[in-house]
Specification:
nucleus, mainly alpha, Cohesin_Scc3/SA, cell division, 5-stranded antiparallel beta sheet, 1175 residues, chromosome, cell cycle
Amino acid sequence: MIPESNATAASRSSEQNTNSHAEATSSGAVNQSEDDSGNENRQKSVRRRKRAHKGSENVKRKSAKAGCSRASRAGGSKQKHVEAVTLFEVITMGRSAMQAVIDDWIEAYLADRDSSLLDLISFFIQCSGCKGVVTAEMCQSKEDSDVMSKMVEELDEDSGLQYKKFLAFPWILTVTWPMDTDSAEYPLVQSGPYGRWFHSEFCDFVSVLVCQCQHSVIFDSYLMNTLISLLTELSNSYVRAFRHTCTLAAVKVLSALVGVALSLSVGIENSQKLYEVQKTKTVRQKSSQQLERIQKKIMELQEKKAEVESMMDIIFKGVFLKRYRDVLPEIRSICMEELGLWMKLYSSVFLNDSYLKYVGWMMHDKLPDVRLKCVLGLQGLYGDPVLLPKLDLFTSRFKERIISMTLDKDNEVAVQTMKLLLLISKTSDEVLTPEDYKQLLQLVYSSQRPLAATAGELLFSRLLSTVAPTSETQDGLNEEEAHQQQRLKALLQFYQESELHKHVVYLVDSLWDCGGALLKDWPTLTSTLLQDSSSHSTGFSLAEQAVLVEILVASVRQASEGPALAGRSGAKKVMNAREKKIQTDDCLKLTEHLLMVLPQLLSKFSSSYDIVASLMRIPQYFLPECPEAENTQVVSSLMAEMEAALDLHSGPAVLEAAARSYLSLCGEETSWCSAARSARDALVQRWVEKLTALLGDSLKGDCFSADEDKLRDILATLKKLRAFHNCHDLSRWSLFDLLSPLLSVERGAPSEVLLEVLQCLSYVMLWSLNTSGETLTCREKAVAQRLRLRLFCERSHRCLSHGDLSVRQQAFLGACDVLTAHSYQLHLWDPTSFGPLLFTTSPKLQRALLTFVCVHVFVGSDSDNQSRVSEGSEVERLEDLHRRRNLLAAYCKLIVHGVLEMSMAAEVFMYYMKYYNDFGDIIKETMYRTRQVDKIESARTLVLSLQQLFMRLKREQESGGRAHPGVQTFTSIKELARRFALTFGDLVKFRECVVMIHRNGIEFVFQEFSQTPGTATPPYLSYLTILSEFSSKLLKPDKKTVFSYLQKHTAEHIIDLREETWQPLIYYRASLLAAAEGEDAVSYVSSDRKPYQPHRSPFSKPKLEGSRSPCPFSPVESKVSKVPRLSGSPSHQDKAAETDPFSVPLEPPAKRLDTEGSVIGTSNEPGDDTVEVEL
């Protein structure tokens, strides 16, 4: 960074790292070279290390005393000695040292401004990460046309250097740097904490520089002119580093100038006040000289302010107007962020429609960060009531765009836009119309919690907080309770008007942060529900009471579990100590209150099924330890009301909620554990006795008969036992012995009864297996458990052929779940204690399970299935797909856990591509899990699925019948093989698997084949085309081994490669040899299929290594678009009639690339004589 002669600068390399000691001259060069490691400051501590200054700066200090004294003042009482450093190095030393060094620079500038300016120029070049040379020469005239024509920015390819020549009056600067500098990371964009730290320190330096110069050299018409012209020119460079760094510096200079203008405005205002005070004095007290001094000072300050505003205008027009639409999103974000700051701080100049339009335009930017900076800037403007009158035109012009940004794809932009609209609604009532509010308030049901919470705040401030209490209070209610009821009424009205959503729990979650006091007022909610609606005119209807109950349950859940909701993201996952304390206090309050009131609510709404189902969920959120639980009468009252509700209702919602509530109440840590368990046991005992009596009358011998009333009672009791058995262990009531006879009668029970019985028996077996470690204390009990398991599997196997689909599906799911649980318990079994005995599934049941999956899951082709279900509703289609996915997942669990042989997954794997949209994820996960268990066996299963599909297609073509829907085409089988090959990612890890696939495929084709005149080719020869899809997954040594293995099997046969029937073999060999030699299969096939010259024998070429049969392969690269078919034999057409009907034309192996490559298509039409090869 030392100016030196131009000749010296030209001879110096751009890799130099030392500074010259020459004195500053009017024409010099500034070296900006750094070491190869880039900025050394990244590796050094700011306070602990300070590099020694090995050379002097452009400005040599006349005396080290001044610099050291200022640096020592910045160091505080320790009086640390700070050695002379460059301006770039001062960034690493903190703000206090920065001020001291800048003060030294100002003193040096006053002594020698040209050399000091070169130091400042060097600083900005170096901050751009430029490792090059800066050459400076003086310019006498800024308007010299000859000089302006030399301002270029070009690339010298011969020398490998880039250079930029520009005017920073009075300097003509030439920056030269290597070509690869633009692609390297410069300080502002470096990843990690260093990039963020440098950005902050660089901005601080620019701000401190302008701040320290505002009282001295900023108005000398030299420093700022040079600095502004420098930053303007570099911000227009095509080099990203210069453009980004200098744009940031320029807008920060403008921001600092805004601070200078504000301080000048304050000085002018104070001087004017002083002038007015002096004018009001009497003639004797008034001093004309003092008035003149004040007037002169005011004029000087106004001139300085005008000069500063002129500087700001130059920077805005020269930098901002050119860079606010820059291709680099970081530059656009910087411009929008600083513009919002200028309009807020210096509204008299910047806050008008001429500047606001840029914010409005950039709200349409494609980058979220730019839109976010615009919204954040507008928040600062709309948050100040003084600035609102200047925003009227902007608001009317861009209101629609702002409202639409609440649906922005970036969540943060949408949230901040909603906060902006919340500010607008609070400050201006007439801006947003009722239609706008209706659109915005619907966002309380958004899947993003931050956006929904902000919309909830808008709802609360707009509707709920502005509700005025009625003048006439109701009987028995004070003014506060009446006001709360009016707010609840408004909330209910909003919920009923929003017809798009029916999720109260999401509405409560959205209002929780701002309206928690209303939602946590459980006494008001319960008193409103318990009051008689006929006693006053403003009561709630039954529908409104049902919604209030849902709000009550949702608020209880929110207070107990927090904002974690299914389908809503963005909630805070970890609570701090204060939030946990609030949650515990809320749970204690709701438990103490609702434990007393819930029996009354159940009693009042006992006839309403939906309300009872909601109220039954409340005990799940009670705090286990509560002082009110010591009152046994309260707990007994609650249990009695819950039991009475269960006697009235047997719907799934009530039963599930009741079972879960009893499970929560019967926990060992609860205070009411004994009372709850006694009530539950008595309830279950009553149901079992009732069911025993009913079945005793209905089940006579091998026949089941019951009238409608008795059947209704049996079904209701079974539903209750099934719901409770799902949550509670009811093993001591021996339900297996009670219910299993229903599955063995000849004249079976109705489908509804069988469905409940199958579910109950599956729960019995699952609980038995789950508690094996506790209940199996001897071998006799283990044998009895295995007998029950065998009996359950036999009964389920019998139900798989039932006429009702739901019964078949439940029997399948129950058998799969129980067998999976048994296998899991065997893996967890401790050999030192008794556990479940080994149980092997019968072959008949295994085949029945596989058949069930093929018949009920893979129904027809995927396209046919889509068109079939599209006739129904979308909901029915999704429910049917969900059921089929559950069935497939249950079967795949049996494969993964080893209940079924892995080979039985072949039937599932063959549908991987055909049903990829519906079941692709399940099948792929099954492949992954089975490969973890045994990768060789898993690969053998993949081969088995391909071979089975191939043989089905072969038989279908030989039979000549109508196409069977379960048979896939040859192209689809080949595509399936390609997708299977893609699952072998690590070639080294799956080396044995891929080799086994090829060996198995070769044996499949050539084993047990004896060549005769009638059968010249193997019947399964076309399978080699499918097998070639795995050739790309072979390592080079393995490809040679596989090729030798292929030659071993083909050596015994007479093979004429000119025959069309042997093309699959040619194709497969090409896929092996091409990759082994670094060529592609297309080149091999193209060269092989060229007609042979008449005077040369097709077998005259040397044999390949390890080959016993003649091979005419010649790896010649071909780039033709069409490959002619083999026509070397004069009797080609006669032989074509004897060709294998299943043989396919030549189809090179798929060598696919991600972005570009060859796309190979094969025509199978009989009249086509060419194979399309598009390269």
